[in-house]
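Continuing the series of single-chain predictions for the mutant panel. This is the parent chain; the variants come on the following pages.
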Amino acid sequence: MNNQIFHHVVELITALKETDFFEDHPFADQDILCKKLIMALLEKSSREGEFTKLDEEEFVDVVNSTIQESINETISSLSDKGAIQWKVRPGGELVISKNPDFNMDEI
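Parent structure:
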C-alpha cells in the first residue's frame, strides 16, 4: 500500500508541475504538500483497509492546509525579523504593515 501511495503522490505532484500550479500558487510549498498528501492518503487508506485516493474535497483541503501553513510561516518569519508591524485598531481589527525602518534587502 505504501508504494501505491508514493507513486500516486508522485503522479499528483508531476501533474501539478505540468500545469504550473506551483508557479501560480507560490505558497503551495511542494515538499510540504507532498508530505501532507502522503499523510492524508495513509490515514484514509488505513481507515478503508486498502489504498484509496482522496476525493476532490479532501485534496483541496490538503492543498489549502499547505498554503495556510506556508503563509503562517512567512508572516511569522517576517514578524520575527522586524520587517512587519502589527497594530490593533479600535474595534479589534488587526492591521499588518511594512516596518518603514526595516531594510527589505536584509531578508
